[in-house]
């Protein structure tokens, strides 16, 4: 088996969490890591520290907000695009795409959309529409593709500890969920849910009301695979220990493991969808 591990991690400030990031990379050694919320300009990206840890990187920063990066262990990621198509006036750093060891890796930080209703939610849905259109072309590209990132969508009530206190949040709105479902309807495989159909798995715990201590989490970080790559999926989970570090990100790294010798084989059959809470 030629294994490849791909992860996504919203670091919530790469300068603030650099020690956590380096500790995670050293311990888990993902082959590819997609990062979101760098919250730093391009010149502040810790390129040398990551190189010293064995990772090459491409990144797109933004002052105080947003920012995405793709790290690759031991090889250079080959940049494909630096922005989501469809709106040349969109200045947010939310999308990055690269080829890594034969796999197209899309790293995304979908807009949060709060408060809703309002212009921020409108922007979220407009961005989502552009993403759905681009995802369709990626799905049909003939290349193995993973779309990894912070989608800021809780797909179903089963993906949150308790939906009642979040009913007005943009992450749970019917429009947000419908957009995510339209991605799945294109054929994308939700890695975590495919391998864990009946297990409540979370990737985010906010800083308030002891949500981490109570395991009151949400699943909003997703890795979606197209038909070429989905047969390679052998494992998927969350590195929860990172969320338990001192002054952590509110997200934990989410990862998949792929058996690349399976490339070209039949897509896995869809499993029964988990019941909603």
How would you characterize this protein structure?
This protein has 277 residues and is an alpha+beta fold. It has one domain (3-262): Deoxyribonuclease I, Chain A (4-Layer Sandwich). Helices cover 20% and strands 24% of the residues. The chain contains 5 helices and 12 strands. A 6-stranded mixed β-sheet has the order 3-4-2-1-12-11. Strands 5-6-7-8-10-9 form a 6-stranded mixed β-sheet. The model is unreliable at 268-277 (pLDDT under 50).
Which stretches of 5+ consecutive residues score pLDDT under 50?
268-277
Give the overall form.
globular
Give the second-level CATH assignment, the architecture. Answer: 4-Layer Sandwich
Sketch the topology as an H/E string, one letter per element.
Answer: EHEHEEEEEHEHEHEEE
Largest sheet: spatial strand order: 3-4-2-1-12-11
What Rg is obtained from the alpha carbons, in whole angstroms? 17 Å
Strand content: 15-25%
**Number of extended strands:** 12
Output the CATH topology.
Deoxyribonuclease I, Chain A
Helix content: 10-25%
* N→C terminal distance: 37 Å
CATH class: Alpha Beta
For the structure shown, list the relevant keywords.
single chain; 277 residues; alpha+beta; Deoxyribonuclease I, Chain A; six-stranded mixed β-sheet; 5 helices; globular; disordered C terminus
């Amino acid at each position: 088996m030629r294994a490849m591990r791909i992860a996504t991690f919203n670091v919530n400030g790469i300068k603030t969490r650099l020690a956590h990031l380096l500790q995670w990379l050293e311990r888990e050694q993902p082959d590819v890591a997609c990062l979101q919320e760098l919250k730093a300009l391009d010149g502040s990206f810790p390129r040398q520290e990551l190189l010293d840890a064995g990772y090459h990187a491409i990144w797109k920063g933004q002052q105080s907000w947003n920012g995405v990066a793709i790290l690759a262990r031991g090889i250079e990621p080959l940049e494909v695009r630096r922005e989501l198509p469809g709106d040349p006036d969109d200045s947010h750093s939310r999308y990055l795409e690269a080829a890594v060891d034969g796999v197209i890796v899309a790293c995304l930080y979908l807009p949060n959309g709060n408060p809703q209703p309002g212009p921020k939610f409108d922007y979220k849905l407009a961005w989502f529409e552009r993403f759905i259109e681009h995802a369709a072309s990626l799905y049909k590209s003939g290349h193995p593709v993973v779309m990894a990132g912070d989608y800021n969508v809780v797909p179903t009530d089963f993906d949150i500890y308790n939906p009642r206190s979040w009913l007005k949040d943009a992450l749970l709105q019917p429009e947000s969920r419908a957009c995510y479902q339209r991605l799945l309807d294109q054929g994308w495989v939700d890695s975590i849910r495919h391998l864990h159909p009946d297990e409540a798995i979370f990737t985010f715990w906010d800083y308030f009301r002891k949500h981490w201590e109570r395991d009151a989490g949400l699943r909003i970080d997703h890795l979606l695979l197209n038909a070429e790559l989905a047969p390679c999926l052998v494992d998927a989970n969350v590195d929860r220990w990172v969320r338990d570090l001192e002054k952590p990100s509110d997200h934990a790294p989410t990862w998949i493991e792929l058996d690349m010798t399976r490339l070209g084989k039949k897509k896995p059959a869809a499993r029964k969808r988990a019941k909603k809470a």
